Amino acid sequence: MKMFVCAMFVALTLSPSPNAQASIARAISFEQKIDDAEMIVLGRCVERHSAYDPSGRWILTYTTFEVEKSYKGVPGTRITIVTPGGVVGSRHQETLGVPRFGEGDVNILFLKRSGAGPTVLFFDQGVYRVVSDEASGERVVAPVRSDLVLIDTQTGRVKPASDEGAQSLSAFERQLRERLERERSSR
Fold it and tell me: Does domain 21-185 have CATH number 2.40.30?
């Protein structure tokens, strides 16, 4: 029995521990995302590549989306966004909480302009994944999975990664339109 306990202790001691990394960000309401976004688009990822920034110190990823629908701003039929991190040769840089896109992914993007080009607003909080529900065939929108730890600035407490649940694309668009109409009428 002692031998078994000793073997278990050694096995547990030598086994790799889980990786527990996260970025901390202020929790942003859906309304604030809409208000602060310069552009909001529904698009399909058609291309992605990473390269060094002009200084050669940082890796940036450039992701091109074919725009299906523009809700705010006028991006055209395609838009290329830039996000920090990526892989160039054998070098890998990553920023936790920054969305990653794969070719074919369909997303709703809340965007702002940066010195390097359009980028996602509020880290992962500015991206929603759009998929087709297998049972109904209806398109469904949900926040992307995130490594962000969100803090409610009113209470100082940690919030769930997203308290927004999945919903139909039509319901999501209705909320978006209503907020945009209120934003226009208040100007």
Answer: no
